[in-house]
Design brief:
The complex is a heterodimer. By secondary structure, chain A is mainly α. Chain A has one domain. Chain A contains three helices and no strands. Chain B is mainly alpha-helical. Classes of the chains: A mainly alpha, B mainly alpha.
Chain lengths: 102, 399
């Protein structure tokens, strides 16, 4: 039980920059952020992309801001998250190959 | 320090490898078969889900008002065009799916009746942008071909499914009035806004006239022939070979070839002059349509005629020069001309960047709006109406 808890805790600890664990942690953070803005309904405001206001009540500025946040986080989720996960895998495999070679 | 630098360099190298692996694969997540968007027979899943949302809007007045108000803040035309595209779509759907015909006819009648009521009560300016009031129409009494053409095509579309005597009278009145004005205009050019005329509106109006010919046995083939001849002579941009979008009543260009018009113009021309239509589509596809890493999209302007982003193009995304307006209407062109590769790549982009939202079988695209979704529905269902008129025209057309 204690071992499992320590392992979980280790996963949450800040990893060395650009290490595989760091990349997975960043991917997880972005995924969490995306889940948050998605559940908050920010997607509804993306009509700004074709020049339509997201909400008449909120006005242009706030609608555009919420749309901008959603679009950036979404792009990070679909592009950056897989890249980070793949990079972590490439790095791990690369490190193992180098270690074995040594 | 050296270890840290090595680690960062190794991380960056791994990221670069990952980018080269992931970017070419990204579109595969959003890729669907071409039959998901459009089918030769029956209704595709996309059409069914889009239609469910659009029909729902017409059963929930509060929701409809909310959606229409969002569009009217930017452009009152969108409110009108959303109605047109939906009625045209429902007519095609009724021909594809006879079992659901009563629901589609009911919704079409509801939309047409409300549109005619608003036009009568509020006047034609209700569906036009504000600058329509800034000057007088040159031809009096003032009429907008934009409204007359699309309303005529709504009435004709409904009658293509099942005739309705009240609409026959209304269609005949609208067609006779447009034909009278065409005959009165020395250049065969009619205004949508004061001294501002649109190729899009002329093509739709002529489609409606041709559909009325099919329905009522009239013959305006000479008028259509003469207008096409005039357009080829005066409205084609010599550099690109593409039809310009808007012009004065004398035929002087105002706005050059733009994607948000051209894809629909090519589709409309299919009913009027199939060879010219095919030529315009292929030129538009070559100069404005692009597929990058499996994602299809369209530019608003060809290289030979650059213009600013406007209400039709929507915001233009830099670097890739993507126009939301042109890319949305490109579905209609690709679907009309059976360009499955482009259509599938456009649908891939739509699922990637259109932000679909589906609940209870109802689909809308958050990055779009009601008119955008209705245009997509039209692209997913078009075909049967044109085929019906073309079959009838085979033995009636005499030019």
């Amino acid at each position: 039980m204690k071992i499992i808890t320590e392992k979980k805790f280790a996963l949450l600890q800040r990893a060395e920059s650009m290490s595989p664990r760091d990349m997975v942690q960043r991917a997880a953070a972005i995924s969490g952020l995306f889940l948050l803005v998605h559940l908050a309904g920010f997607r509804e405001y993306t009509g700004i992309l074709n020049g339509t206001i997201g909400s008449v009540d909120l006005g242009w500025k706030l609608s555009a801001f919420l749309a901008g946040v959603y679009i950036l986080v979404y792009l990070a989720f679909v592009i950056l998250v897989p890249v980070l996960v793949l990079a972590a895998a490439v790095l791990t495999v690369g490190q193992r190959v180098i270690t074995r070679a040594k | 320090m050296k270890t840290r630098i090595n680690r960062i360099l190794a991380g960056l190298a791994a990221m670069t490898v990952a980018v080269f692996i992931w970017l070419p694969c990204l579109h595969l997540i959003f890729l669907k078969s071409d039959s998901h968007f459009r089918q030769g027979q029956g209704l595709s899943p996309e059409a069914q889900h889009l239609a469910a949302w659009q029909i729902h809007l017409w059963t929930d007045p509060a929701l409809r008002e909310k959606e229409l108000n969002k569009m009217r803040v930017s452009n009152a035309e969108w409110d009108f065009m959303g109605r047109s595209y939906l009625v045209w779509s429902l007519a095609n759907m009724a021909l594809r799916d006879p079992a659901s015909r009563p629901l589609y006819l009911h919704t079409m009648d509801q939309i047409i009746d409300e549109t005619l009521r608003l036009e009568k009560e509020q006047g034609m300016y209700f569906f036009l942008m504000d600058y329509a009031k800034q000057g007088p129409y040159l031809m009096q009494p003032a009429h907008s071909l934009f409204l007359d053409g699309e309303i005529a095509m709504m009435l004709a579309s409904r009658r293509m499914v099942e005739d309705k005597p009240e609409y026959k009278v209304l269609l005949t009145q609208r067609v006779d009035a447009m034909v009278g004005r065409f005959q009165k205009s020395p250049q065969m050019i009619l205004e949508s806004y004061p001294d501002e005329c649109w190729t899009f509106d002329h093509c739709v109006a002529l489609d409606a006239i041709k559909m009325a010919d099919y329905l009522d046995g009239t013959d305006h083939s000479r008028l259509i022939h003469d207008w096409i001849a005039m357009a080829k002579q005066k409205l084609v941009d010599p550099k690109s070979g593409l039809l310009i979008s808007s012009f004065t009543t004398r035929g002087a260009p105002l706005i050059g070839p733009e994607g948000s018009s051209l894809w629909m113009v090519a589709h409309s021309l299919q009913l009027l002059d199939p060879e010219f239509a095919r030529d315009q589509y292929e030129r538009t596809r070559k100069q404005l349509g692009t597929i990058t890493l499996g994602f299809g999209y369209a530019h608003e302007w060809p290289e030979t005629w650059r213009g600013p982003a406007d209400v039709d193009s929507g915001p233009i995304i830099p670097v890739f020069d993507i126009s939301a307006g042109s890319s949305g209407i490109a579905f209609i062109g690709a679907s009309s001309f059976g360009d499955d590769q482009f259509l599938t790549s456009l649908a891939t982009t739509l699922d990637f960047a259109g932000f679909p939202s589906q609940t209870g079988g109802r689909l809308k695209y958050c990055a779009s709006n009601q008119v955008g979704d209705a245009a997509l529905l039209y692209a997913a269902t078009l075909g049967p109406m044109w085929e019906k008129v073309e079959k009838g025209a085979n033995h009636e057309n005499n030019y």
